[in-house]
Amino acid sequence: MAIDTTIYIQTPDRTSAYLDWLQMLTGANLVLFMWSHMVLVASVNLGAGAMNTLARFFEDTYMAQVGGPIIGATFLLHFLLAARKVPFRVEQQSTIWKHSKMLHHTDTWLWLIQVFTAMIILIMGSIHMWTILTDLPITATKSAARIQGGFWLVFYLILLPMVELHVGIGFYRIAVKWGFIRRKERKGFKKFENLLTAIFILIGLITIVRFMTLPV
Ligand code: HEM
User: Fold this and answer.
1) Atom 28 (ligand 1): residue with closest C-alpha?
2) What is the distance in A from the centroid of ligand 1 to the CA of 40?
3) Atom 1 (ligand 1): residue with closest C-alpha?
4) Model confidence over 93-111: pLDDT tens digits?
5) Which domains, and CATH codes, for the chain?
């Protein structure tokens, strides 16, 4: 007879509390990075010159060369910390799926979206960072040529909503889990988070269209 080990609950200790803190801190840093990243890439909407000037500044000050790998390392550390709770095994996945359907609780579904988008971002984000950081300097023309090639257009059309959902839900969950917002404020904050996610997806899409139309 099979024993359902997926319902075994480990008693949390002090170490897991510290690791939870670190997970939140790395996540919050990545949220801030992604918001800045979107604004920086969207500078191309003000003209290729604006994006090139910003990119040159980040490279001349070595922020891209040093900051890029730091973001990459934070990204992997954040994944390792979150992986402590991710249901990787099929039995665990089937249990969490059954429980989620039973609970009828939006925030539980948000957590599942968070896990699903994380797996896609882990792979696609790593490929993206490697591609960009091994092909410096960043220029608007190079980015446009990449996207007009077709492959990266499809790639970004998948990665963009995955990242923005993950960032938006992550931001909301940090606020709920660590008590920055109270229970009665949750509904309003969730609406704000949805609006923020939609705005960033829209900015990303406008930027992609700009890259598609930029002469290369
Ligand atoms: C390590 C530092 C990073 C640098 C220097 C960087 C740089 C860039 C650049 C130059 C573009 C323009 C398109 C291109 O040239 O192909 C871009 C687009 C994009 N990046 Fe990054 N990136 C970094 C990290 C990340 C991470 C960690 C993610 C998410 C996991 C991400 C997600 C995206 C997305 C979704 C787009 C498309 C933007 C749009 O819709 O306009 N990037 N990035």
Assistant:
1) 125
2) 10
3) 68
4) 988 899 999 888 888 999 9
5) 13-213 (1.20.1300.10)
